[in-house]
Design a protein that fits this description.
Blueprint: H1 14-26, H2 33-46, E1 50-54, H3 57-67, E2 75-79, H4 85-92, E3 96-100, H5 111-116, E4 122-125, H6 137-147, E5 150-154, E6 162-163, E7 166-167, E8 174-178, E9 191-195, H7 198-208, H8 234-244, H9 247-265, E10 271-273, E11 287-291, H10 294-303, E12 309-310, H11 329-335, E13 338-341, H12 349-365
Parallel strand pairs: 2-3, 2-4, 4-5, 5-8
Antiparallel strand pairs: 1-9, 6-7, 8-9, 10-11, 11-13, 12-13
The chain binds pyridoxal-5'-phosphate.
Amino acid sequence: MNKKINWWQPQFGQEEQKLILQVLNDNYPNEGYYSSLFEQKIAKLVGAKYAIAVTSGTAAMFMSLKALGIADGDEVIVPDMTFIATANAVDMCSATPVLVDIDPNTLTIDPKAFKKAITSKTKAVIPVHVTGRAADMKTILTVAEEYEIYVIEDAAEAFMSKYKGKHLGRFGKTGCFSFSPNKIITTGQGGIIVTDDDELHVRLRELKDQGRPVRGTGGDDIHHSRGYNFKFTNLQAALGLGQLTYLDERMKRLVKTHEIYADRLSELDGIEVLLFDTGEEELPLWTDVLIENREKFIDHLKSLAIDCRKFWHPIHTQKPYKLSNNNFPNSTHLASKALWLPSAYTLVEDDINYVCDGIKSYFNDS
Ligand SMILES: Cc1ncc(COP(=O)(O)O)c(C=O)c1O
C-alpha cells in the first residue's frame, strides 16, 4: 500500500458548498442568520439552554473567565498536560494559571492535585477532556462546590463525547468547544460556549460584540459594557452547518477506529492503548497510546507512510510558564511516551488494519 495515512484530515462536501453559496448570494458574510442557526443546533445537540459561537476555543475559554469576573490577582487551576491555549486563556484575563499534575490513567487533571493547589485566590478550575476522555467531573465538581470555585470545561476535543451518559461541556458553569480543523467538525477556526445561565448568556453576548446587547447599524448603537469582537460569521456557520450533516457517520467511524486499535494492539506488550468508556458514550476523537522509544516507533511508521502526532510538551516545560519538574511527576513521565495514532474519520478499516500491521511489524522486527 502506497497511500499516505494521515494522522488527521478534515473533509468538506457539497452541503458546505451549497450553504456558503447561499451566504454569498445573500451578500451577508457577517454574523447573522446562519450563525444563530448553528448556535441553536449545537445547543440542541448537547442539551444546553444557550450556545454562543465565537472565533475559537481559546476565545470561548477567555470569554467564560472574563464573564465570570476573573481578573488580575485571581488564580485559575489548569492541568499541566493540555494544549497551551488553556493556560493562555487564563493569561488573557490577566489572571494566573496555576498548573497541576495529571492522572496517569486518563491524562486529565488529577483531582487530588487540584484540591491541593487551591488557595484563597483560586477562582476557577479548567478541567480538560483530553482526546474526548472525561476528566473526573464528579470529584472536581464536589471539590469546586466545597471551595466555591467556578468550573469551566475545556471540551475543545470533546464535542459529542459524554461522561456517564451526559454531554461533556454540560457539567461546568460553561463548556467550551473548538471547531479548529482537527476536530470532528470544523469551521476553519471557531469555537462555542454552552451554558444554562441566563445572566452569563447576556454577558457573553455583550462581550463578543463590543459590549452591545443588540447590534444595530454599527453607528448609533448603545454599548452597555466593555467588550471585544469575537463574532462568528455566517461564512463560518455555513461551513459548520454543512459539517453537522456528517456528524453521526463520523462519530461511528471514530468509535470503530478506536475499537480496531484497542482490539488488535491489545496483545502487544510494548504499546498501551488508552481506553475509553464507549459504553457510556465517551467519544474517542483520536486514539492515544503510550510507548517507550517514541522517536524510533515514529520513524518506523514514517517509513510506511504512516503519520502520527506526538503529545504536547507539558506546559510547565514551555518558556512562558516554566517551572521545575518537581510537582509534575506524571506529566513529565508520560509526555515523552504519549502519541496519537492516525485517527482521521476519512480513514477506512483497511487503513487502520494497515497501521496495526505496521505497528506489529515494529515489535516483530525490533
Ligand atoms: C485541549 C484544547 N484546548 C484548547 C484548544 C484551543 O482551541 P482553538 O484552537 O479553537 O482556540 C484546543 C485546540 O485546538 C485543544 O485541543
